[in-house]
Design brief:
Blueprint lengths: L6 H37 L6 H35 L3 E7 L10 E7 L5 E8 L4 E8 L10 H12 L6 H8 L2 E2 L6
Parallel strand pairs: 1-5
Antiparallel strand pairs: 1-2, 2-3, 3-4
Length: 182
C-alpha cells in the first residue's frame, strides 16, 4: 500500500507524526505535573493520602459542629438571662410641692423584658428628701402607684437602649407639672 508513495513523503509524514506525538507527550506531562502540584497543595505535602486527608477534614467538621452546638446552647442561656436583667428604664422628673421651684423629684422605673423590676421615687423638699421603692411585677405593683410612677413604668416599657446620643435625650427625662402623688 505504501509501495507506490515516494520514500521522502513517507519519511516526512512519519517525522510529522513523531513531532506531533512528542508535542502531545509534552502537554500531557505538563498537565500531569500541574495536577500533581494541585494534589500536593491540597494535601499540603504532609505525605498524607487522600483517605487520611478526608478523614481529618471530616473529624474537623464534626468538632466544628459540636462547637456550634455548644455556642447555640450558650446563646439561648444568655438570651434567657438577658430577658431577666433590668435593661428597660423610664425616668420622670417632677415638682411635687408648690413651694419649691425646680423639678428635683423623680420616679425611676427599672424593668426587665417581662415588665418585672422596681420603681423608685425620690421626693425632694426644702427640709428633707424621701426615697420610696416599690416592686413591680408585670408592670403592676401591689402598692399604689402615682401618676409619675405609672409614666416611668410606661416609659421603661417603650424605651430601648441605644448608642445614639440623640436617643439619650429622647428618653432621659419627661417633665410634668403635676403635683399629685398617691
Amino acid at each position: 500500500m505504501l509501495s507506490g508513495l515516494p520514500v521522502d513523503l513517507i519519511v516526512i509524514v512519519s517525522l510529522l507524526i513523531a513531532v506531533l506525538s512528542l508535542i502531545v507527550a509534552i502537554f500531557s506531562w505538563a498537565s500531569a505535573a500541574r495536577t500533581k502540584r494541585r494534589i500536593t497543595r491540597v494535601l499540603r505535602g504532609g505525605g498524607i493520602n487522600i483517605e487520611e486527608s478526608l478523614e481529618k477534614t471530616y473529624d474537623a467538621a464534626l468538632r466544628a459542629k459540636q462547637t456550634v452546638s455548644t455556642f447555640d446552647q450558650r446563646l439561648i442561656l444568655l438570651e434567657r438571662k438577658q430577658a431577666q436583667t433590668l435593661s428597660k428604664f423610664g425616668l420622670v422628673r417632677f415638682n411635687p410641692f408648690d413651694d419649691t421651684g425646680a423639678d428635683l423629684s423623680f420616679s425611676l422605673a427599672l424593668l426587665n423584658d417581662y415588665g418585672d423590676g422596681m420603681v423608685m421615687t425620690s421626693l425632694w423638699g426644702r427640709n428633707e428628701v424621701r426615697l420610696y421603692a416599690k416592686p413591680v411585677t408585670k408592670r403592676e405593683s401591689r402598692y399604689a402607684l402615682s401618676q409619675e410612677e405609672r409614666r416611668a413604668i410606661d416609659l421603661a416599657v417603650t424605651t430601648r437602649l441605644s448608642t445614639d446620643a440623640s436617643s439619650d435625650e429622647a428618653h432621659s427625662t419627661a417633665d410634668t407639672s403635676s403635683s399629685s402623688l398617691s
